[in-house]
User: What shape does this take?
Amino acid sequence: MNLGELLESDVVAAARHLLGWELRFGPLRARIVEAEAYRTPDDPACHAHRGQTPRNATMFGPAGKAYVYFTYGNHWMLNVVAHEPGNAAAVLIRALEPLEGLDEMRGRRLKATRDEDLLSGPGKLCQAFGITGELDGVDLFDGQGLHLVEGAAVTDVLTGSRIGITSGKEWPWRFVDAKAIRWASRPIKDLA
DNA sequence: GTCCGGATTACCT
DNA sequence: GGTAATCCGGACT
Assistant: This one.
């Protein structure tokens, strides 16, 4: 099954297979090294668990769109919408390996002292790419603007519990490229 | 209208 | 490893 089919049917498998894909935005290019799955109706950590609101409406739409939201008063987060319209689910992009456009990323991430600090977190990568709520709902597979391009498949994947949530920790829906842990957002102590 | 908490980050020890 | 910062969305009175 290709990624498009996985996105429509199985957000957990889709999160796993999104590793290795490239995120592009103008001159910026970076490789997905960490992602997490969220879904309804059985996942209490999913924003859409308590139903549709204006904020999470994009997650209830068709797969393949960007769901971008604001949290903690400072940070934007980028997700890839999954499952069929009405069944809310999404893959949170948590970390990227920078490939091109490093200078532009550094220009937006003035607090980053090392290249490992550029994209190693969901809020950081949105800041480095200049992703804000204006991009909520854009098509990530149309080859223009902010979009995804298939890269070399990742074969060595670490799995663990999701970060920063209070319920739903028992599901190992966090995925990290084992050969790129240098770029991941957190240590991998519970990953196997 | 008010209150609480958050899919985080940055900075300090 | 711990915690302050920061402010919007959602739930509730």
Q: What stands out?
A: Residues 1 and 14 of chain A are 10 Å apart (CA to CA). Chain A has one domain: 3-183. Chain A has a mean pLDDT of 95. Residues 50, 53-55, 69-74 of chain A lie near DNA strand C (CB under 10 Å from a C1').
